[in-house]
Amino acid sequence: MFSSIGWGEIVVLLAAGLIILGPERLPGAVSWTFQSIRKVRDYATGASGQLRDEMGTDFDQFREPIQQINELRQMSPRSVVTKHLLGGDSSSVDDLGRTVRDTLDIQGTSKPSRPAPAVAEPSAPTPPPAKPNLSKRFHDYTDWDAT
User: Fold this and answer.
1) CA–CA separation, 28 vs 41, rounded Å?
2) Sequence-distant (≥ 6) Cβ neighbours of residue 18 within 8 angstroms
3) Best exposed site among 29, 30, 79, 121 by fewest CB in 10 Å?
């Protein structure tokens, strides 16, 4: 029910409740809140049980499209390809993804090796710095700006 609320939000709510209600009324408010949530949950469970009893086998017919919609919500392009074209075997898709990542080197694990700078002799004059050749510059995915 509260899957989107983390511990940080709960702490903030408790701190706000402590400030607004005060320490003497906060325990009563917390217990009232939990009792209300429990009652709502019991009402919902009772209503669905009563609906199931009244409708009988028709209830399963109404429930089936809802289950299909939930399955469609969980589908991603990868799972559609795996399920319908590959019969549920995702090993070839995993191998293809691994090959593409290795080919493109998305992780950036191996950078092109650059030659070590040559050490000039102290007596030789240093040449002026060469203009960088921008056409041969290595572009990494981190250089791209999406904005």
Assistant:
1) 20
2) 26
3) 121
CA–CA gap between residue 13 and residue 19 (Å, rounded): 10
Q: Which of 106, 68, 76, 110 is nearest to 93 (CA)?
A: 76
* Interatomic CA distance for residues 138 and 142, integer angstroms: 11
Residues 17, 29 contacting (CB under 8 angstroms)? yes
Tell me the one-letter amino acid at 27.
Answer: P
Mean pLDDT of 97-114: 66
Alpha helices in 22-122 (DSSP H): 26-55, 58-73, 77-80, 91-104
Instruction: Kindly state the tokens that stand for 44.
Output: 């919902």
Residue count of the chain: 147
As a 3-state breakdown, the chain gives helix, strand, coil percent values, each rounded to 5, of 60, 0, 40
Q: What is the pLDDT of residues 106-131, one digit of tens each?
A: 555 555 555 555 555 555 666 666 66
Tokens coding 136: 């041969």
Q: What's the pLDDT score for residue 89?
A: 77
Q: How far, in Å, CA of 5 to CA of 98, rounded?
A: 35
